[in-house]
Amino acid sequence: MDLIIQLLDTTVRLSVPLLLACLAGLYSERSGVFDIGLEGKMLGGAFGAAAIAATTGSAWLGLLSGIAVAVALSLIHGFASITSRGNQIVSGVAINFVAAGLTVLLGQSWFGLGGKTPQLPKTARFSPIELPFAEAMADVPVIGQIYVELISGHNILAYVAFLMVPLTWWVLFRTRFGLRLRAVGENPAAVDTAGISVVWARYRAVIICGILCGIAGTYLSIAQSAGFGRDMTAGKGFIALAALIFAKWKPVNAMFACLLFGFLEALDIRFQGVELPIIGVIPVQLMQALPYILTVILLAGFIGKAIPPKAGGIPYVKER
Amino acid sequence: MKNELPKWADYGLIPLINLAIAFTVSGLVVLFVGESPIEAAKLLLRGSLGYGEGIGFTLFHATNFIFTGLAVAVAFHCGLFNIGGEGQAYIGGLGAAIVCLTLDTVTPWWITFPLAIAASALFGAAWALIPAWLQAKRGSHVVITTIMFNFIAASVMVYLLTGMLRPQGSMAPQTRTFEVGGQIPKLDFMMDWFGMDIGGAPLNLSFLVALVAAFLVWVLIWRTKFGYELRTMGTSPTAAVYAGIPPVKTVVITMLISGALAGMMALNPVMGEQARVELDFVAGAGFVGIAVALMGRSHPVGIVIAGILFGMLYQGGAELAFDMPNISRDMIIVIQGLVILFAGALEHMFRPALINFFEILSINSKSSSKGAA
Predict the structure, then answer these.
(1) Is the pLDDT of residue A283 over 70?
(2) Which of A95, B35, B229, B235 has the highest CB neighbour number within 10 Å of its CB?
(3) What is the pLDDT of residues A263-281, one digit of tens each?
(4) How many angstroms separate the CA atoms of B162 and A84, rounded?
């Protein structure tokens, strides 16, 4: 029982950045702007957050700066793919490179620690929050344990990530903004005919994407760890992208996909090199590749069908 | 309004402007970290072209980028975006390794090398097959699947290099060093003709293979029936289908050629430099290929030039990092990103302004010629 709860707890921790980045991609791609630059934006956000948290000693200022960096990168992507009608994939690749290079270059030039930011003190980080009644519940068997270990004791960004799931669902499927956002991703010409600005709708989606990526990056650098390190996203942006496809561009599915991929990572950490009954030792590399393999299998059509937004990747040209 | 630019402006001026902006912004970054951009540019040029060994290293890096650039370009012409060069090259290395590990003590290099070329191309192509098939048959975006395959390739190679391919008693995740039969000769004799000494630079025969590949790609794309079909497919898939060009076959074969080119990139580091397969030997060359293809406008000549330019950046950047403490090798990654951004994603940024400019120019010249008449 302890083992299961521990495993699930790790799963939740590991899936938070995936979930935030995945929802970020969801907004962008639903509006018709493909985004393979999630990785770069998260990395930029992580660096921005850690750098400012280290200099000011405030986690909240760190968060703001992380968001600002990621939104700035988002706007570059937006400008390239919406205003200047460039290739969205190329733009995403560019953002990943610029972020990977600049974070280390600036980190080295500012802090001189080989691209790392200084180790953050506890006060400059987001620390775990005890939910009410956690102490009283601790003695209740099973439910108490689940409440104390699994639900309580995460940092605020983790709760934000999971609250974003219903919020995103509500925004996308129950508000006018969401309807327009989805319409712009499926049939921009129709939206344009109705007198709504395609450009503005897409820019808003891209900005939201930046904000969420910034929070995801902040979580990595000043909540989960105590500072920024070279390439600390380590492919999480791409796993989030895989999760987005796996979730077929739906918010609640996205949560389950991220939890699944987080669970795989947690299993990998817990059972690394451990001899399991019947199966034997599972190669670490297989566990690491599993999210990608699953996504490819999904794309091959063995698990349902993933249909991306129709206008995704195509710049909108008002008149032909 | 005419929406067209003269050809020389489209193929020469626009890339130059975009490149100039990318380098200007890079210069600003250098300035921002407190170094002089002009000094940096000087160091970079001296490090990459100033002496024989530098040139040797520049061309050695260029070899990688020409292969991966060609891989991206071939796919581009068919309207496909193969960002899986990284993984295809990694798996291509596995093909080369299998040939070298079995034959290096048996056959001389001139027998091993052609076999290794074939094997690396075959393995690279095989790694592109599933994404190609999924794109052609299922319509799943080749970009997404090739990204996934990059990660899967990395996992596969780590698994093999820490397991099966690792010699007994060794801790390092790499294959054993190939004997002479698995190593290809350096091009030092060729540089001797120009009176240059390449010193320790690992410039080798695969550079010439890359140039031959560039020529063959030109023949393929502009001088064969398949090349015509491929370009038609890239310009308008519906027109291609209407003209009776088989879409599935064209897409799959194009991706296989693209993967094969990426796979052959492995020859250069694996057989020409390290004489073994090391962890992560591709080191981002697959992604540099995107920048190279964009900058070279997907034309083999442009790609060779862009490949050499990026070779200079890599070699010169290494020297730069050595001399300027505030600039690490990550500066190259930034420049690379900016080139991709300005020469790729923002390539249309200056087009409208230039079109206007040429319009005004032509109107002026017309009215002045009228005045003369």
Answers:
(1) yes
(2) A95
(3) 988 888 887 777 777 777 7
(4) 46
Please indicate, yes or no, if residue A247 is contained in any of the structural domains. no
Please tell me which residue, B2 or A137, carries the higher pLDDT value: A137
| Phi, psi dihedral angles at A280 (to 5 degrees) | 85, -160
The full set of domain ranges for chain B reads 56-351
User: What is the value of pTM for the model shown?
Assistant: 0.89
Q: Which residue of chain B is at minimal alpha-carbon distance from A284?
A: B159
Question: What are B147-184's pLDDT values in tens digits?
Answer: 999 999 999 999 999 888 888 888 888 888 888 888 88
Which residues of chain A lie closer than 8 angstroms to B346, CB-CB?
79-80, 84, 86, 91
Closest-CA residue of B relative to A299 is B140
**Would you give the DSSP letter of residue B269?**
I
CB B67 within 8 A of CB B210: yes
Does A82 reach chain B within 8 Å, measured CB to CB? no
Say whether residue A104 is in contact with chain B using an 8 A CB cutoff: yes
Does the beta-carbon distance from B331 to A238 stay under 8 Å? no
Taking the Cβ of residue A113 and every Cβ of chain B, the question of whether any pair is shorter than 8 Å is answered with no
Q: How far is CA B277 from CA B56, B112, B120, in A?
A: 21, 16, 12
Give chain B positions within 8 Å (CB) of A99: 337
Q: Quote the ipTM score.
A: 0.87
Query: B130 touching A, CB under 8 A?
Result: yes
Dist CA B5 CA B359 (whole Å): 9
Interchain CB distance below 8 Å, A296 and B134? yes
Pairwise CA distance, residues A319 & B20, whole Å: 31
Hey, is the C-beta of B348 within 8 angstroms of any chain A C-beta?
Answer: yes
């280290």: which residue's tokens? A54
Chain B nearest-CA distance from A45, in A, is 17
What's residue B102's pLDDT? 92
Q: Is the pLDDT of residue A200 over 50?
A: yes
- The torsion angle over the Cα atoms of residues B137, B139, B142 and B148, rounded to 10 degrees, is -90
Q: What residues does A154 pair with on adjacent strands?
A: A129
User: What CA–CA distance (Å, rounded) separates B325 from B329?
Assistant: 10
- HSE-CB at A130 with a 13 A cutoff on CA atoms is 7
- Provide, as residue numbers in chain B, all residues whose Cβ is less than 8 Å from the Cβ of A289: 151-152, 155-156
Q: Across the interface, which of B148, B158, B163 has its CB nearest the CB of A295?
A: B148
Residue positions counted in chain B? 373
Report for B2-11, B232-241, B342-351: range of highest mean pLDDT: B232-241
Contact A285 B159 (CB under 8 A): yes
B337:A87 CB<8 A: no
> For B150, which residue in chain A has the nearest alpha carbon?
A292
Model confidence pLDDT, tens digit, residues B250-282: 999 999 999 999 999 999 999 998 889 998 899
**Which one, of B18, B26, B348, lies nearest residue A88 by Cα?**
B348
Place of tokens 């600002």: A68
Backbone angles phi, psi at A20, to 5 degrees: -60, -45
For residues A226-250, average pLDDT: 89
Could B143 and A91 be called an inter-chain contact, meaning their C-beta atoms sit closer than 8 Å?
Answer: no
Residue A311 pLDDT class (50, 70, 90 cuts) = confident
Is there a domain that residue A38 lies in? yes
- Is residue A251 included in any domain, yes or no? no
In a domain, A42, yes or no: yes
What is the tens place of the pLDDT at every residue in B196-215?
788 888 999 999 999 999 99
* Parent domain of A91: 15-130+141-241
Helix (H, G, I), strand (E, B) or coil at B179: coil
Torsion over CA: B16, B21, B22, B26 (sign)? positive
Place of tokens 């993967």: B259
Average pLDDT of span A195-210: 93
